[in-house]
Specification:
With 100 residues, this protein is of the alpha+beta class. The protein has one domain. 24% of the residues lie in helices and 40% in strands. A hairpin with a 2-residue loop joins strand 2 and strand 3. It is globular and about 35 Å long. It starts with a helix and ends with a strand.
Length: 100
């Protein structure tokens, strides 16, 4: 009984761990929605953490379903050549997004 529970838990951990790698292999970037009320910030940004660096993106076309603080998403985007709307984030256009 203990062995079957352990096996199920390990399978769950491996599956959740590998789904992020699968998304990245399919061209998705993994990030977290961040909500801010700071005057110099955009209301909603996407935080992407790579090793020891955090990068923030300003999604100009984020759907309302994803405008919730601290949700994990996988997304595909294009950088935009336009003036930044906030201090910490670069503007992007999201063309595919899903919750993690």
């Amino acid at each position: 009984m203990k062995i079957s529970i352990t096996v199920i838990l390990l399978l769950g951990i491996v599956t959740s761990c590998c789904s992020g790698k699968k998304d990245m292999a399919n061209g998705f970037t993994i990030g977290t929605i961040v909500y801010s009320v700071d005057e110099n910030d955009c209301n909603y940004t996407i935080k992407v953490t790579n090793k020891n660096e955090e990068v923030f993106y300003d999604p100009i076309n984020l759907e309302d379903d994803f405008k919730k603080n601290d949700i994990k998403i996988a997304f595909k985007f294009r950088p935009l050549k336009m003036k930044n709307r906030c201090n910490k984030a670069n503007p992007i256009s999201v063309f595919e997004v899903k919750k993690k």
